[in-house]
Amino acid sequence: MTDQALDHPNVIIFPPILLLATVIAGLLLDWLFPIEILETVPKVARLVVGAVMLCLGASMPIVARRAFKEAGTNIRPTKPTTAIIASGLYAHTRNPIYQGAAVALLGLALLLGSDWILLLTLPMLLVLHFGVVLREERYLDRKFGEAYRSYKATVPR
User: Fold this and answer.
1) What is the pTM for the complete model shown?
2) What pLDDT score does 6 carry?
3) What are the distances in angstroms from CA 61 to CA 55, 66, 70, 145?
Protein backbone atom coordinates (compact mmCIF):
# COMPACT_ATOMS: atom_id res chain seq x y z
CA MET A 1 0.00 0.00 0.00
CA THR A 2 1.16 3.51 -0.70
CA ASP A 3 1.18 6.36 1.81
CA GLN A 4 -1.59 7.97 -0.27
CA ALA A 5 -3.80 4.89 0.20
CA LEU A 6 -3.35 5.11 3.99
CA ASP A 7 -4.07 8.84 4.19
CA HIS A 8 -7.77 8.65 5.02
CA PRO A 9 -9.86 7.62 8.05
CA ASN A 10 -10.86 4.19 6.72
CA VAL A 11 -14.53 4.58 7.65
CA ILE A 12 -16.67 1.43 7.52
CA ILE A 13 -19.39 3.00 5.35
CA PHE A 14 -19.77 6.10 3.21
CA PRO A 15 -22.14 8.26 5.34
CA PRO A 16 -24.63 9.17 2.57
CA ILE A 17 -25.08 5.46 1.87
CA LEU A 18 -25.82 4.88 5.55
CA LEU A 19 -28.48 7.60 5.48
CA LEU A 20 -30.01 6.30 2.26
CA ALA A 21 -30.05 2.74 3.63
CA THR A 22 -31.83 4.00 6.75
CA VAL A 23 -34.51 5.71 4.67
CA ILE A 24 -35.01 2.70 2.37
CA ALA A 25 -35.09 0.21 5.27
CA GLY A 26 -37.48 2.47 7.19
CA LEU A 27 -39.88 2.81 4.29
CA LEU A 28 -39.76 -0.91 3.58
CA LEU A 29 -40.46 -1.72 7.25
CA ASP A 30 -43.28 0.86 7.28
CA TRP A 31 -44.84 -0.98 4.37
CA LEU A 32 -44.30 -4.49 5.79
CA PHE A 33 -44.88 -3.83 9.49
CA PRO A 34 -46.71 -0.51 9.94
CA ILE A 35 -46.67 0.93 13.45
CA GLU A 36 -48.58 4.18 12.73
CA ILE A 37 -47.70 6.01 15.95
CA LEU A 38 -46.67 9.17 14.08
CA GLU A 39 -50.06 9.13 12.38
CA THR A 40 -51.57 10.01 15.79
CA VAL A 41 -49.66 13.32 15.84
CA PRO A 42 -51.71 16.18 14.35
CA LYS A 43 -50.81 16.20 10.67
CA VAL A 44 -50.24 19.94 10.23
CA ALA A 45 -47.95 20.12 13.27
CA ARG A 46 -46.03 17.02 12.15
CA LEU A 47 -45.62 18.38 8.62
CA VAL A 48 -44.53 21.85 9.74
CA VAL A 49 -42.02 20.57 12.29
CA GLY A 50 -40.79 17.94 9.83
CA ALA A 51 -40.31 20.50 7.04
CA VAL A 52 -38.43 22.89 9.33
CA MET A 53 -36.19 20.09 10.60
CA LEU A 54 -35.55 18.80 7.08
CA CYS A 55 -34.63 22.27 5.78
CA LEU A 56 -32.45 23.23 8.75
CA GLY A 57 -30.77 19.86 8.85
CA ALA A 58 -30.11 19.77 5.11
CA SER A 59 -28.64 23.28 5.19
CA MET A 60 -25.86 22.27 7.58
CA PRO A 61 -24.10 19.88 5.16
CA ILE A 62 -24.48 22.47 2.38
CA VAL A 63 -22.80 25.18 4.48
CA ALA A 64 -20.14 22.74 5.71
CA ARG A 65 -19.39 21.61 2.15
CA ARG A 66 -18.63 25.24 1.23
CA ALA A 67 -16.19 25.42 4.16
CA PHE A 68 -14.38 22.33 2.84
CA LYS A 69 -14.15 23.89 -0.61
CA GLU A 70 -12.87 27.21 0.75
CA ALA A 71 -10.25 25.39 2.86
CA GLY A 72 -9.17 23.36 -0.17
CA THR A 73 -9.64 20.02 1.55
CA ASN A 74 -11.59 16.90 0.68
CA ILE A 75 -15.06 16.26 2.05
CA ARG A 76 -15.09 12.56 1.12
CA PRO A 77 -13.77 10.34 3.92
CA THR A 78 -12.05 8.13 1.34
CA LYS A 79 -9.64 10.95 0.44
CA PRO A 80 -6.92 12.72 2.45
CA THR A 81 -7.82 15.65 4.68
CA THR A 82 -5.43 18.54 4.05
CA ALA A 83 -6.67 21.08 6.62
CA ILE A 84 -8.55 21.38 9.87
CA ILE A 85 -11.60 23.60 9.45
CA ALA A 86 -12.23 25.56 12.64
CA SER A 87 -14.43 28.42 11.43
CA GLY A 88 -18.11 28.82 10.62
CA LEU A 89 -20.15 25.84 11.79
CA TYR A 90 -16.91 24.06 12.70
CA ALA A 91 -16.23 26.68 15.38
CA HIS A 92 -19.30 25.38 17.22
CA THR A 93 -19.37 21.65 16.48
CA ARG A 94 -16.91 19.16 15.03
CA ASN A 95 -19.54 17.24 13.06
CA PRO A 96 -22.07 19.64 11.52
CA ILE A 97 -22.55 17.47 8.44
CA TYR A 98 -23.57 14.43 10.46
CA GLN A 99 -25.63 16.43 12.93
CA GLY A 100 -27.45 18.18 10.10
CA ALA A 101 -28.05 14.91 8.31
CA ALA A 102 -29.52 13.38 11.48
CA VAL A 103 -31.85 16.36 11.97
CA ALA A 104 -32.87 16.18 8.30
CA LEU A 105 -33.52 12.44 8.65
CA LEU A 106 -35.77 13.03 11.65
CA GLY A 107 -37.57 15.76 9.71
CA LEU A 108 -38.08 13.38 6.80
CA ALA A 109 -39.47 10.76 9.20
CA LEU A 110 -42.00 13.30 10.46
CA LEU A 111 -42.93 14.46 6.95
CA LEU A 112 -43.47 10.91 5.77
CA GLY A 113 -45.05 9.73 9.00
CA SER A 114 -42.41 6.99 9.07
CA ASP A 115 -42.17 5.38 12.48
CA TRP A 116 -39.48 3.03 11.24
CA ILE A 117 -37.19 5.78 9.92
CA LEU A 118 -37.56 7.42 13.33
CA LEU A 119 -36.72 4.14 15.10
CA LEU A 120 -33.83 3.28 12.77
CA THR A 121 -32.21 6.66 13.36
CA LEU A 122 -30.72 5.45 16.67
CA PRO A 123 -28.89 2.42 15.23
CA MET A 124 -27.85 4.57 12.26
CA LEU A 125 -26.33 7.10 14.66
CA LEU A 126 -24.47 4.34 16.51
CA VAL A 127 -22.98 3.04 13.26
CA LEU A 128 -22.11 6.61 12.27
CA HIS A 129 -20.46 7.29 15.63
CA PHE A 130 -18.42 4.10 15.92
CA GLY A 131 -17.81 3.37 12.25
CA VAL A 132 -17.22 6.89 10.95
CA VAL A 133 -16.80 9.67 13.54
CA LEU A 134 -14.39 7.87 15.87
CA ARG A 135 -12.31 6.66 12.91
CA GLU A 136 -12.18 10.18 11.49
CA GLU A 137 -11.10 11.55 14.88
CA ARG A 138 -8.29 8.99 15.23
CA TYR A 139 -7.14 9.78 11.70
CA LEU A 140 -7.15 13.55 12.30
CA ASP A 141 -5.29 13.07 15.59
CA ARG A 142 -2.58 11.02 13.83
CA LYS A 143 -2.34 13.42 10.90
CA PHE A 144 -2.51 16.82 12.65
CA GLY A 145 -1.39 15.96 16.18
CA GLU A 146 -1.52 18.79 18.68
CA ALA A 147 -3.34 21.16 16.32
CA TYR A 148 -6.28 18.74 16.14
CA ARG A 149 -6.15 17.91 19.85
CA SER A 150 -6.33 21.63 20.65
CA TYR A 151 -9.32 22.07 18.31
CA LYS A 152 -10.97 18.99 19.79
CA ALA A 153 -10.50 20.35 23.33
CA THR A 154 -12.28 23.60 22.54
CA VAL A 155 -15.06 22.52 20.14
CA PRO A 156 -17.67 19.93 21.18
CA ARG A 157 -18.57 16.96 19.05
Assistant:
1) 0.91
2) 79
3) 11, 9, 14, 26
